[in-house]
Amino acid sequence: MTARDLPGDRPRCYVGRFAPTPSGPLHFGSLLTAVASFLDARAHAGTWRLRIDDLDTPRRVPGATDGILRTLAEHALHWDGPVAFQSDHVADYRAALSELSRQGLSFRCTCSRKDLRGHRVYPGTCRTRDVPPGRDAAVRILVPAADYAFDDRLQGPYAECLARETGDFIVARRDGLAAYQLAVVVDDAQMRVTDVVRGADLLDSTPRQLFLAERLGLETPRYLHLPVIVDRGGAKLSKRTAASTIEPGHPGQDLQWSLELLGLEPPERGTPEELLAWAVPRWDAERLPRGTTLATWTSL
After folding, report:
1. What's the structural domain count of the chain?
2. pLDDT tens for residues 114-144?
């Protein structure tokens, strides 16, 4: 099998990004990711962009975007340039899908979740089926029996054989929306993102994204996957699990907790601006906690 490795440092100017989904208010796990991404960008004298991943229209919550922007501003996490929205780039995702089709890499799939129950990896049911154009179907991409590997800045070397681990995965949903794996690759390339700092729950998405970027001729960023904060039962903090949202009025305390979890020893007092200004020159990815989960939420 052929190993494809993520390129290392490039002479491009650092561009980072934070890309929340407007499905509700920010929770502490999301804020931690935003702080880490912001500090990594500022420590490299780089640009920090904000993108609202609002492509999944059924999950949008009215007012959530404004709430996210307010929370970031309250914590002095000021982004550079205009806010980007996935919903503005539907035509770009369609162009990417057309390119994959032109290469003979995609096929329509009518399999339901019930049809695939019991299969850990997609079994290739619709690869050779002739699905009529008007039939309700998702679009999948043919994956090779190859390892896609990269060196994560925190987690170290990581590799997956796509054929064995994921199978032919979905790049467009039945409702016509581009799937996350495709949209994020197109978005990051268009924004010229050089470095992605995100949660380790997305670690296994990276090989699929590297594969898509390769097929679309797009540059790939470096990755740093932070450990995900979990609760007493080991469940990831999220909107779906009723994770603690960020309450207004305590940004200094929120940032102190975040900085401590990121391996720093912040001052006991300070405004959000002062705490972040203190943290930027002290930011060191080598001091970040290792592993993919961080079971310290109950101590906060």
Report:
1. 1
2. 999 989 999 999 999 988 887 899 999 999 9
Q: Which residue has the tokens 């170290």?
A: 156
Structure tokens at 211: 């594969």
Domain that includes residue 12, residue range: 3-299
Under a CB-based contact definition with an 8 Å cutoff, are residues 194 and 10 in contact? yes
The dihedral built from the CA positions of residue 285, 290, 292 and 296, taken in this order, carries a sign that is: negative
Measured in residues, the chain has a length of: 300
The pTM of this model reads 0.90
Cβ pair 245, 27 in contact under 8 A: yes
Helix or strand (DSSP H, E) at 223: strand 222-226
Which of 191, 192, 190, 186 lies closest to 209, judged by CA? 186
**Could you give the 3-state DSSP secondary structure of residue 175?**
coil
Find the CATH number of the domain harbouring 126. Answer: 3.40.50.620
